[in-house]
Amino acid sequence: MRGIFMKNEQERDLLKTRLASAASLPKDVVLGAAVVSVLGNHEVCIENYRGIVEYTECLIRVQTREQQIRLHGRGLQIEYYTNDEMKITGKICSIEFCE
Amino acid sequence: MIQLLIRYLRGYVKIRVEGYSSERFLNLCSYHRIYIWGLKPCGQAYELYMDLRGVRKIRPIVRKTHTRIHITGRYGFPFFLHRYRKRKLFFLGILLCIGLLYGYSGRIWDIHFGGNESWTDETLMEFLNTKNIRPGMPKKEVDCPQIVTDIRQQYNDIVWVSASVEGSLLKIQIKENEDTFIEEENTATDEKPDAKQQTDAATETPTDLVASEDGVITDMITRRGVPMVHIGDSVQKGEVLVSGRIEICNDANEVIGYRYEISDADVFADTTMEYTDSVPVTYAQKQYNQKKQRWAAFVQIGSYRIAVGFQKHTFSKWESYCLERRLKLGENFYLPVLYGYSCVKSYDTIEKRYTEKQLQAQLSSNFTRFSKDLKEKGIQIRSNSVKIHLDEDSASASGTLYLNQRIAEPADTEILEIERNELE
Fold first, then answer.
1. pLDDT of chain A, 99 residues: tens digit per residue
2. B312 falls in which pLDDT band (50, 70, 90)?
3. In a mutagenesis test of the A interface, which of B20, B29, B30 is the best target, namely the one with the most A β-carbons within 10 Å?
4. A59 — contact with chain B (CB < 8 Å)?
5. Does pLDDT of B249 surpass 50?
6. Is B90 domain-assigned?
7. Residues 6 or more apart in contact with residue A66 via CB below 8 angstroms
8. What is the ipTM of this complex?
Protein backbone atom coordinates (compact mmCIF):
# COMPACT_ATOMS: atom_id res chain seq x y z
CA MET A 1 0.00 0.00 0.00
CA ARG A 2 2.77 2.35 1.09
CA GLY A 3 4.71 1.34 -2.02
CA ILE A 4 1.80 2.40 -4.20
CA PHE A 5 1.57 5.77 -2.46
CA MET A 6 5.32 6.20 -2.71
CA LYS A 7 5.13 5.48 -6.40
CA ASN A 8 2.23 7.90 -6.78
CA GLU A 9 4.10 10.62 -4.91
CA GLN A 10 7.20 10.15 -6.99
CA GLU A 11 5.11 10.25 -10.16
CA ARG A 12 3.32 13.34 -8.94
CA ASP A 13 6.62 15.11 -8.26
CA LEU A 14 7.95 14.10 -11.65
CA LEU A 15 4.78 15.39 -13.27
CA LYS A 16 5.05 18.68 -11.38
CA THR A 17 8.69 19.08 -12.41
CA ARG A 18 7.82 18.48 -16.04
CA LEU A 19 4.84 20.81 -15.85
CA ALA A 20 6.93 23.54 -14.28
CA SER A 21 9.62 23.10 -16.96
CA ALA A 22 7.05 23.08 -19.78
CA ALA A 23 5.12 26.10 -18.52
CA SER A 24 8.29 27.95 -17.44
CA LEU A 25 6.88 28.31 -13.94
CA PRO A 26 9.23 28.98 -11.00
CA LYS A 27 10.02 25.65 -9.36
CA ASP A 28 10.18 27.03 -5.86
CA VAL A 29 6.52 28.01 -6.18
CA VAL A 30 5.30 24.85 -7.90
CA LEU A 31 7.38 22.33 -5.97
CA GLY A 32 7.71 24.32 -2.75
CA ALA A 33 11.47 23.89 -2.85
CA ALA A 34 13.67 25.95 -0.56
CA VAL A 35 15.68 28.74 -2.14
CA VAL A 36 19.18 29.04 -0.70
CA SER A 37 21.31 31.93 -1.85
CA VAL A 38 24.92 31.90 -0.69
CA LEU A 39 27.16 34.95 -0.86
CA GLY A 40 30.78 33.94 -0.42
CA ASN A 41 31.14 32.03 2.79
CA HIS A 42 29.72 34.64 5.10
CA GLU A 43 26.12 35.18 4.09
CA VAL A 44 23.24 32.81 3.34
CA CYS A 45 19.63 33.68 2.55
CA ILE A 46 17.02 30.95 2.86
CA GLU A 47 13.45 31.20 1.56
CA ASN A 48 10.56 28.72 1.56
CA TYR A 49 11.27 27.08 4.89
CA ARG A 50 9.11 25.79 7.68
CA GLY A 51 11.13 26.87 10.71
CA ILE A 52 14.28 26.62 12.81
CA VAL A 53 14.90 23.25 14.42
CA GLU A 54 18.14 24.06 16.15
CA TYR A 55 20.23 27.14 16.48
CA THR A 56 23.66 27.47 18.07
CA GLU A 57 26.72 29.54 17.21
CA CYS A 58 28.18 26.76 15.11
CA LEU A 59 25.13 24.92 13.75
CA ILE A 60 21.79 25.99 12.35
CA ARG A 61 19.22 23.41 11.28
CA VAL A 62 16.36 24.70 9.16
CA GLN A 63 13.36 22.57 8.29
CA THR A 64 12.04 22.89 4.77
CA ARG A 65 9.11 21.09 3.16
CA GLU A 66 10.96 17.92 2.26
CA GLN A 67 14.31 18.03 3.99
CA GLN A 68 16.50 19.73 6.53
CA ILE A 69 19.26 22.16 5.73
CA ARG A 70 22.25 22.08 8.06
CA LEU A 71 24.64 24.97 8.18
CA HIS A 72 27.93 24.47 9.97
CA GLY A 73 30.12 27.38 10.75
CA ARG A 74 31.43 29.79 13.38
CA GLY A 75 29.78 32.81 14.94
CA LEU A 76 26.52 32.20 13.11
CA GLN A 77 23.96 34.90 13.59
CA ILE A 78 20.49 35.42 12.14
CA GLU A 79 20.30 38.97 10.76
CA TYR A 80 16.54 38.81 10.38
CA TYR A 81 13.91 36.13 10.64
CA THR A 82 10.51 36.48 9.03
CA ASN A 83 7.89 34.11 7.77
CA ASP A 84 9.25 34.28 4.22
CA GLU A 85 12.96 34.72 4.47
CA MET A 86 15.89 34.50 6.85
CA LYS A 87 19.43 35.76 6.50
CA ILE A 88 22.32 34.09 8.26
CA THR A 89 25.74 35.69 8.62
CA GLY A 90 28.97 34.38 10.06
CA LYS A 91 31.73 32.14 8.80
CA ILE A 92 30.00 29.26 6.98
CA CYS A 93 31.95 26.01 6.61
CA SER A 94 29.37 23.65 5.08
CA ILE A 95 25.79 23.40 3.90
CA GLU A 96 24.15 19.95 4.03
CA PHE A 97 20.78 18.70 2.86
CA CYS A 98 19.47 15.81 4.98
CA GLU A 99 16.34 13.70 4.48
CA MET B 1 19.00 53.89 6.58
CA ILE B 2 15.29 54.57 6.24
CA GLN B 3 14.58 51.24 7.91
CA LEU B 4 16.80 52.25 10.85
CA LEU B 5 14.97 55.55 11.15
CA ILE B 6 11.57 53.86 11.09
CA ARG B 7 12.73 51.40 13.74
CA TYR B 8 13.97 54.26 15.91
CA LEU B 9 10.74 56.22 15.55
CA ARG B 10 8.56 53.21 16.33
CA GLY B 11 10.77 52.01 19.16
CA TYR B 12 12.23 48.56 19.67
CA VAL B 13 13.51 46.31 22.44
CA LYS B 14 16.23 43.75 22.91
CA ILE B 15 14.86 40.60 24.55
CA ARG B 16 16.37 37.45 25.91
CA VAL B 17 14.41 34.23 25.39
CA GLU B 18 15.07 31.28 27.71
CA GLY B 19 13.34 27.96 28.08
CA TYR B 20 12.97 24.45 26.78
CA SER B 21 11.79 25.21 23.25
CA SER B 22 13.11 28.60 22.35
CA GLU B 23 13.24 27.60 18.67
CA ARG B 24 9.50 27.07 18.75
CA PHE B 25 9.12 30.58 20.12
CA LEU B 26 11.09 31.89 17.13
CA ASN B 27 9.03 29.87 14.67
CA LEU B 28 5.78 31.05 16.19
CA CYS B 29 6.98 34.64 16.06
CA SER B 30 7.70 34.31 12.38
CA TYR B 31 4.34 32.56 11.88
CA HIS B 32 2.55 35.50 13.52
CA ARG B 33 4.55 37.86 11.33
CA ILE B 34 6.47 39.41 14.18
CA TYR B 35 9.60 40.89 12.73
CA ILE B 36 12.79 39.67 14.43
CA TRP B 37 16.34 40.80 13.73
CA GLY B 38 19.82 40.54 15.24
CA LEU B 39 19.13 37.03 16.52
CA LYS B 40 22.11 35.37 18.20
CA PRO B 41 22.52 32.50 20.64
CA CYS B 42 23.69 33.43 24.10
CA GLY B 43 24.46 30.28 26.10
CA GLN B 44 21.23 28.37 26.51
CA ALA B 45 19.16 31.39 25.49
CA TYR B 46 18.68 33.65 22.49
CA GLU B 47 18.95 37.38 22.27
CA LEU B 48 17.01 39.21 19.62
CA TYR B 49 15.54 42.58 18.69
CA MET B 50 11.84 43.10 18.23
CA ASP B 51 9.72 46.18 17.55
CA LEU B 52 7.13 47.45 20.01
CA ARG B 53 4.17 46.13 18.03
CA GLY B 54 5.72 42.64 18.18
CA VAL B 55 6.24 42.84 21.94
CA ARG B 56 2.55 43.49 22.44
CA LYS B 57 1.72 40.24 20.59
CA ILE B 58 4.17 37.78 22.16
CA ARG B 59 2.43 37.08 25.51
CA PRO B 60 0.33 34.12 24.17
CA ILE B 61 3.38 32.72 22.37
CA VAL B 62 5.43 32.85 25.56
CA ARG B 63 2.68 31.06 27.46
CA LYS B 64 2.33 28.43 24.76
CA THR B 65 6.04 27.64 24.44
CA HIS B 66 6.77 27.80 28.23
CA THR B 67 9.64 30.20 27.67
CA ARG B 68 10.70 33.18 29.74
CA ILE B 69 11.58 36.51 28.24
CA HIS B 70 13.60 39.37 29.71
CA ILE B 71 13.74 42.77 28.16
CA THR B 72 17.42 43.71 28.26
CA GLY B 73 17.32 46.98 26.35
CA ARG B 74 14.84 49.62 25.23
CA TYR B 75 15.63 51.79 22.26
CA GLY B 76 13.90 54.37 20.08
CA PHE B 77 11.93 57.56 20.25
CA PRO B 78 9.00 56.39 22.45
CA PHE B 79 11.47 55.31 25.17
CA PHE B 80 13.42 58.54 24.73
CA LEU B 81 10.24 60.53 25.39
CA HIS B 82 9.42 58.37 28.39
CA ARG B 83 12.93 58.67 29.86
CA TYR B 84 12.96 62.48 29.67
CA ARG B 85 9.27 63.02 30.41
CA LYS B 86 10.04 65.17 33.45
CA ARG B 87 12.25 67.62 31.57
CA LYS B 88 9.51 70.01 30.57
CA LEU B 89 11.79 72.84 29.47
CA PHE B 90 13.64 70.50 27.15
CA PHE B 91 10.44 69.55 25.37
CA LEU B 92 9.35 73.16 25.41
CA GLY B 93 12.65 74.00 23.70
CA ILE B 94 12.08 71.35 21.04
CA LEU B 95 8.56 72.65 20.42
CA LEU B 96 9.85 76.22 20.32
CA CYS B 97 12.56 75.17 17.88
CA ILE B 98 10.04 73.49 15.60
CA GLY B 99 7.74 76.50 15.87
CA LEU B 100 10.51 78.97 15.08
CA LEU B 101 11.72 76.83 12.21
CA TYR B 102 8.19 76.76 10.84
CA GLY B 103 7.71 80.47 11.39
CA TYR B 104 11.05 81.53 9.93
CA SER B 105 10.76 79.24 6.94
CA GLY B 106 7.71 81.27 5.93
CA ARG B 107 9.88 84.32 5.35
CA ILE B 108 12.32 85.51 2.74
CA TRP B 109 15.83 85.59 4.20
CA ASP B 110 17.94 86.48 1.22
CA ILE B 111 17.64 88.05 -2.21
CA HIS B 112 19.93 86.86 -4.97
CA PHE B 113 20.45 88.78 -8.19
CA GLY B 114 21.84 87.10 -11.29
CA GLY B 115 22.75 88.34 -14.76
CA ASN B 116 23.10 92.00 -13.79
CA GLU B 117 26.23 93.74 -15.05
CA SER B 118 25.60 97.46 -15.26
CA TRP B 119 23.08 97.61 -12.41
CA THR B 120 24.71 96.63 -9.13
CA ASP B 121 23.11 94.41 -6.52
CA GLU B 122 22.99 97.39 -4.15
CA THR B 123 21.08 99.58 -6.63
CA LEU B 124 18.53 96.86 -7.33
CA MET B 125 18.26 96.13 -3.63
CA GLU B 126 17.53 99.78 -2.89
CA PHE B 127 14.88 99.83 -5.57
CA LEU B 128 13.23 96.69 -4.17
CA ASN B 129 13.33 98.30 -0.73
CA THR B 130 11.22 101.14 -2.05
CA LYS B 131 8.68 98.51 -3.13
CA ASN B 132 8.79 96.94 0.36
CA ILE B 133 10.62 93.85 -0.84
CA ARG B 134 13.34 93.15 1.70
CA PRO B 135 14.86 90.20 3.57
CA GLY B 136 12.70 89.18 6.51
CA MET B 137 9.38 89.81 4.79
CA PRO B 138 6.71 87.05 4.78
CA LYS B 139 6.96 84.75 1.80
CA LYS B 140 3.25 84.91 1.02
CA GLU B 141 3.48 88.69 0.53
CA VAL B 142 6.01 88.27 -2.27
CA ASP B 143 4.30 88.94 -5.57
CA CYS B 144 6.77 87.72 -8.18
CA PRO B 145 4.88 88.99 -11.29
CA GLN B 146 4.59 92.43 -9.63
CA ILE B 147 8.35 92.50 -8.92
CA VAL B 148 9.02 91.65 -12.55
CA THR B 149 6.68 94.41 -13.74
CA ASP B 150 8.20 96.97 -11.37
CA ILE B 151 11.76 96.23 -12.45
CA ARG B 152 10.82 96.34 -16.13
CA GLN B 153 9.06 99.67 -15.64
CA GLN B 154 11.90 101.21 -13.67
CA TYR B 155 14.81 100.08 -15.85
CA ASN B 156 14.36 100.42 -19.59
CA ASP B 157 17.59 98.65 -20.46
CA ILE B 158 16.58 95.51 -18.56
CA VAL B 159 14.93 93.44 -21.25
CA TRP B 160 14.03 90.31 -19.28
CA VAL B 161 13.36 89.65 -15.60
CA SER B 162 12.40 86.52 -13.76
CA ALA B 163 11.60 86.39 -10.04
CA SER B 164 11.12 83.15 -8.18
CA VAL B 165 11.06 82.01 -4.57
CA GLU B 166 13.30 79.05 -3.79
CA GLY B 167 12.98 78.03 -0.17
CA SER B 168 13.64 81.21 1.75
CA LEU B 169 15.58 82.76 -1.14
CA LEU B 170 14.10 85.25 -3.58
CA LYS B 171 15.95 84.73 -6.83
CA ILE B 172 15.88 87.50 -9.41
CA GLN B 173 17.37 86.81 -12.81
CA ILE B 174 17.95 89.73 -15.13
CA LYS B 175 18.95 90.13 -18.75
CA GLU B 176 20.27 93.53 -19.68
CA ASN B 177 20.22 95.03 -23.14
CA GLU B 178 23.91 95.24 -23.99
CA ASP B 179 23.34 97.32 -27.14
CA THR B 180 21.93 100.23 -25.16
CA PHE B 181 25.32 101.33 -23.86
CA ILE B 182 26.92 101.38 -27.28
CA GLU B 183 24.06 103.46 -28.65
CA GLU B 184 24.23 105.85 -25.72
CA GLU B 185 27.97 106.27 -26.19
CA ASN B 186 27.49 106.96 -29.86
CA THR B 187 24.93 109.66 -29.29
CA ALA B 188 27.07 111.24 -26.61
CA THR B 189 30.43 111.25 -28.38
CA ASP B 190 29.92 110.86 -32.07
CA GLU B 191 28.85 114.00 -33.91
CA LYS B 192 27.33 112.12 -36.78
CA PRO B 193 25.08 114.23 -38.92
CA ASP B 194 22.74 111.24 -39.22
CA ALA B 195 21.92 111.35 -35.57
CA LYS B 196 21.48 115.07 -35.62
CA GLN B 197 19.42 114.79 -38.71
CA GLN B 198 17.02 112.42 -37.01
CA THR B 199 16.40 114.93 -34.28
CA ASP B 200 16.01 117.67 -36.84
CA ALA B 201 13.68 115.59 -38.92
CA ALA B 202 11.28 115.64 -36.03
CA THR B 203 11.21 119.39 -36.02
CA GLU B 204 11.30 119.56 -39.86
CA THR B 205 13.60 122.60 -39.89
CA PRO B 206 15.78 122.77 -43.01
CA THR B 207 19.50 122.59 -42.22
CA ASP B 208 22.83 123.26 -43.93
CA LEU B 209 26.03 121.52 -43.05
CA VAL B 210 28.82 123.91 -42.07
CA ALA B 211 32.49 123.34 -41.29
CA SER B 212 33.29 122.88 -37.64
CA GLU B 213 37.05 123.33 -38.22
CA ASP B 214 39.39 124.94 -40.73
CA GLY B 215 40.81 122.38 -43.15
CA VAL B 216 41.16 120.91 -46.62
CA ILE B 217 38.37 118.63 -47.86
CA THR B 218 39.62 115.11 -48.57
CA ASP B 219 36.40 113.19 -49.01
CA MET B 220 32.77 114.11 -49.44
CA ILE B 221 29.64 112.06 -49.89
CA THR B 222 26.43 114.04 -50.15
CA ARG B 223 23.16 112.26 -49.61
CA ARG B 224 20.78 115.21 -49.35
CA GLY B 225 21.33 118.88 -50.14
CA VAL B 226 23.50 120.81 -52.58
CA PRO B 227 27.29 120.48 -52.13
CA MET B 228 28.95 123.89 -52.04
CA VAL B 229 32.58 122.74 -51.88
CA HIS B 230 34.68 120.12 -53.62
CA ILE B 231 37.42 117.73 -52.68
CA GLY B 232 40.68 119.67 -52.38
CA ASP B 233 38.99 122.97 -51.36
CA SER B 234 40.20 124.81 -48.27
CA VAL B 235 37.39 125.68 -45.93
CA GLN B 236 37.14 128.00 -42.98
CA LYS B 237 35.23 127.30 -39.82
CA GLY B 238 31.55 128.15 -40.30
CA GLU B 239 31.66 127.93 -44.10
CA VAL B 240 28.66 126.19 -45.69
CA LEU B 241 29.63 122.77 -47.03
CA VAL B 242 26.25 121.45 -48.05
CA SER B 243 23.26 123.70 -48.50
CA GLY B 244 19.78 122.63 -47.56
CA ARG B 245 18.26 125.07 -50.03
CA ILE B 246 17.71 123.63 -53.50
CA GLU B 247 17.00 126.07 -56.26
CA ILE B 248 14.12 125.41 -58.63
CA CYS B 249 14.76 126.85 -62.07
CA ASN B 250 12.53 127.33 -65.06
CA ASP B 251 13.45 126.64 -68.68
CA ALA B 252 15.25 129.95 -68.91
CA ASN B 253 17.40 128.87 -66.04
CA GLU B 254 15.94 131.48 -63.73
CA VAL B 255 15.37 130.70 -60.13
CA ILE B 256 11.67 130.59 -59.51
CA GLY B 257 11.68 129.03 -56.07
CA TYR B 258 13.48 127.09 -53.40
CA ARG B 259 12.95 123.69 -51.85
CA TYR B 260 14.31 123.25 -48.38
CA GLU B 261 15.71 120.00 -47.05
CA ILE B 262 17.64 118.65 -44.16
CA SER B 263 21.15 118.22 -45.52
CA ASP B 264 22.92 114.95 -45.02
CA ALA B 265 26.54 114.30 -45.97
CA ASP B 266 29.85 112.85 -44.79
CA VAL B 267 32.57 115.44 -45.17
CA PHE B 268 36.12 114.60 -44.17
CA ALA B 269 38.91 117.14 -44.07
CA ASP B 270 42.55 117.40 -43.11
CA THR B 271 42.80 119.62 -40.06
CA THR B 272 45.46 120.63 -37.57
CA MET B 273 45.33 120.86 -33.82
CA GLU B 274 47.77 122.37 -31.35
CA TYR B 275 48.74 120.09 -28.48
CA THR B 276 50.30 121.26 -25.24
CA ASP B 277 50.74 119.41 -22.01
CA SER B 278 52.84 120.06 -18.95
CA VAL B 279 53.53 118.16 -15.75
CA PRO B 280 55.02 119.38 -12.46
CA VAL B 281 58.72 118.63 -12.01
CA THR B 282 58.52 118.17 -8.27
CA TYR B 283 56.11 116.33 -5.97
CA ALA B 284 55.52 116.01 -2.26
CA GLN B 285 56.28 112.58 -0.87
CA LYS B 286 54.71 111.46 2.38
CA GLN B 287 56.94 109.88 4.98
CA TYR B 288 54.96 108.04 7.62
CA ASN B 289 56.20 107.95 11.16
CA GLN B 290 55.63 104.37 12.30
CA LYS B 291 55.80 105.37 15.96
CA LYS B 292 53.14 108.06 15.68
CA GLN B 293 50.05 106.03 14.97
CA ARG B 294 46.74 105.69 16.77
CA TRP B 295 44.66 102.56 16.34
CA ALA B 296 41.15 101.80 17.55
CA ALA B 297 38.90 98.80 16.98
CA PHE B 298 35.16 99.04 17.35
CA VAL B 299 31.92 97.12 17.27
CA GLN B 300 28.72 98.98 16.50
CA ILE B 301 25.28 97.57 17.19
CA GLY B 302 22.53 99.85 15.94
CA SER B 303 23.67 103.31 17.01
CA TYR B 304 25.73 102.10 19.97
CA ARG B 305 29.44 101.88 19.34
CA ILE B 306 31.97 100.19 21.60
CA ALA B 307 35.58 101.11 20.78
CA VAL B 308 38.89 99.86 22.12
CA GLY B 309 41.95 102.11 21.83
CA PHE B 310 42.22 105.90 21.74
CA GLN B 311 42.75 108.36 18.92
CA LYS B 312 43.45 111.79 20.47
CA HIS B 313 46.55 113.29 18.91
CA THR B 314 48.47 116.50 18.26
CA PHE B 315 49.95 115.60 14.90
CA SER B 316 50.52 118.51 12.51
CA LYS B 317 50.01 116.43 9.36
CA TRP B 318 48.02 113.24 9.52
CA GLU B 319 45.73 111.02 7.59
CA SER B 320 42.97 108.93 8.97
CA TYR B 321 41.34 105.88 7.53
CA CYS B 322 38.71 103.52 8.69
CA LEU B 323 37.65 100.01 7.71
CA GLU B 324 34.06 99.01 8.42
CA ARG B 325 32.47 95.68 7.78
CA ARG B 326 28.85 94.84 8.20
CA LEU B 327 27.64 91.45 9.30
CA LYS B 328 25.28 89.80 6.89
CA LEU B 329 23.40 86.58 6.57
CA GLY B 330 23.66 85.05 3.12
CA GLU B 331 24.21 87.54 0.32
CA ASN B 332 21.97 90.51 0.91
CA PHE B 333 20.52 90.28 4.40
CA TYR B 334 22.50 92.84 6.36
CA LEU B 335 22.37 92.87 10.13
CA PRO B 336 22.67 96.14 12.06
CA VAL B 337 26.08 95.09 13.40
CA LEU B 338 29.26 96.78 12.20
CA TYR B 339 32.82 96.06 13.16
CA GLY B 340 36.16 97.33 12.05
CA TYR B 341 39.05 99.56 12.98
CA SER B 342 40.20 103.11 12.40
CA CYS B 343 43.74 104.42 12.25
CA VAL B 344 45.39 107.86 12.37
CA LYS B 345 48.85 108.06 10.84
CA SER B 346 51.24 110.97 11.21
CA TYR B 347 53.47 111.95 8.30
CA ASP B 348 55.96 114.54 7.06
CA THR B 349 56.28 115.70 3.49
CA ILE B 350 59.53 115.87 1.54
CA GLU B 351 59.71 117.64 -1.77
CA LYS B 352 61.17 115.33 -4.38
CA ARG B 353 62.07 115.75 -8.01
CA TYR B 354 61.03 113.44 -10.82
CA THR B 355 63.86 112.02 -12.91
CA GLU B 356 64.00 112.82 -16.61
CA LYS B 357 62.90 109.31 -17.50
CA GLN B 358 59.86 109.55 -15.23
CA LEU B 359 58.87 112.92 -16.72
CA GLN B 360 59.25 111.57 -20.26
CA ALA B 361 57.22 108.49 -19.43
CA GLN B 362 54.47 110.61 -17.85
CA LEU B 363 54.25 113.00 -20.81
CA SER B 364 54.32 110.10 -23.27
CA SER B 365 51.55 108.27 -21.48
CA ASN B 366 49.45 111.48 -21.38
CA PHE B 367 49.91 111.89 -25.14
CA THR B 368 49.06 108.23 -25.80
CA ARG B 369 45.87 108.59 -23.78
CA PHE B 370 44.97 111.79 -25.69
CA SER B 371 45.55 110.02 -29.03
CA LYS B 372 43.41 107.11 -27.92
CA ASP B 373 40.57 109.47 -26.98
CA LEU B 374 40.76 111.06 -30.43
CA LYS B 375 40.64 107.64 -32.09
CA GLU B 376 37.59 106.68 -30.06
CA LYS B 377 35.89 109.83 -31.37
CA GLY B 378 36.63 108.66 -34.92
CA ILE B 379 39.39 111.19 -35.59
CA GLN B 380 42.35 109.86 -37.48
CA ILE B 381 45.85 111.18 -36.67
CA ARG B 382 47.89 111.42 -39.84
CA SER B 383 51.08 112.66 -38.23
CA ASN B 384 52.28 114.77 -35.35
CA SER B 385 55.19 117.04 -34.51
CA VAL B 386 54.82 116.85 -30.74
CA LYS B 387 58.13 117.18 -28.88
CA ILE B 388 58.97 116.91 -25.21
CA HIS B 389 60.82 119.86 -23.64
CA LEU B 390 62.53 119.27 -20.31
CA ASP B 391 63.89 122.30 -18.44
CA GLU B 392 65.17 122.89 -14.95
CA ASP B 393 61.77 123.89 -13.56
CA SER B 394 59.26 122.74 -16.19
CA ALA B 395 58.44 119.72 -18.29
CA SER B 396 56.10 120.03 -21.21
CA ALA B 397 55.10 118.48 -24.49
CA SER B 398 53.86 120.59 -27.37
CA GLY B 399 53.45 120.46 -31.11
CA THR B 400 50.91 120.13 -33.89
CA LEU B 401 48.70 117.16 -34.66
CA TYR B 402 47.69 116.59 -38.28
CA LEU B 403 44.25 115.05 -38.29
CA ASN B 404 41.63 113.76 -40.65
CA GLN B 405 38.13 114.07 -39.30
CA ARG B 406 34.48 114.76 -40.01
CA ILE B 407 33.94 118.48 -40.04
CA ALA B 408 30.28 118.76 -40.97
CA GLU B 409 27.92 120.13 -38.35
CA PRO B 410 24.31 121.19 -38.92
CA ALA B 411 23.17 124.80 -38.97
CA ASP B 412 19.83 126.37 -39.85
CA THR B 413 19.34 127.19 -43.52
CA GLU B 414 18.70 130.77 -44.44
CA ILE B 415 15.19 131.05 -45.89
CA LEU B 416 15.03 133.23 -48.99
CA GLU B 417 11.91 134.76 -50.49
CA ILE B 418 11.56 135.20 -54.27
CA GLU B 419 10.03 138.45 -55.37
CA ARG B 420 7.51 137.48 -58.01
CA ASN B 421 7.05 139.62 -61.06
CA GLU B 422 3.37 140.48 -61.12
CA LEU B 423 3.38 141.84 -64.67
CA GLU B 424 1.14 139.12 -65.93
1. 444 555 677 787 788 778 888 877 777 777 778 899 999 999 999 998 989 999 998 999 999 988 899 999 999 999 999 888 999 999 999 999 987
2. confident
3. B30
4. no
5. yes
6. no
7. A32, A33, A99
8. 0.77
What does the pLDDT look like over B150-179, one tens digit per residue? 999 988 888 899 999 888 888 999 998 876
Using CA atoms of B120, B125, B128, B134 in order, give the dihedral in degrees to the nearest 10: 160
pLDDT on residue B392:
81
Domain that holds residue B47: 2-83
Total domains in the fold of chain B: 4
- Residue B310: pLDDT above 90? no
Which DSSP category does B204 fall into? T
Q: Residue B81 pLDDT more than 60?
A: yes
- What per-residue string of b and e applies to B281-293 under the rule 16 or more CB within 10 Å gives b? beeeeeeeeeeee
In a shared domain, residues B135 and B198: no
Examine residue B182 and state whether it is found in any structural domain, yes or no: no
Number of other residues whose CB lies within 10 A of the CB of residue A71: 22
**Statement to judge: residues B247 and B391 lie in one domain:** yes
Residue A55: its chain B contacts at CB < 8 A?
A: 23, 26, 39, 41, 46
Collect all residues of chain A within an 8 Å Cβ-Cβ radius of residue B14: none
pLDDT at B195 exceeding the cut of 50: no
B56 & B17 share domain: yes
**Does residue B338 contact residue B325 with C-beta atoms inside 8 Å?**
yes
Q: How near does any CA of chain A get to the CA of B160, in Å?
A: 59
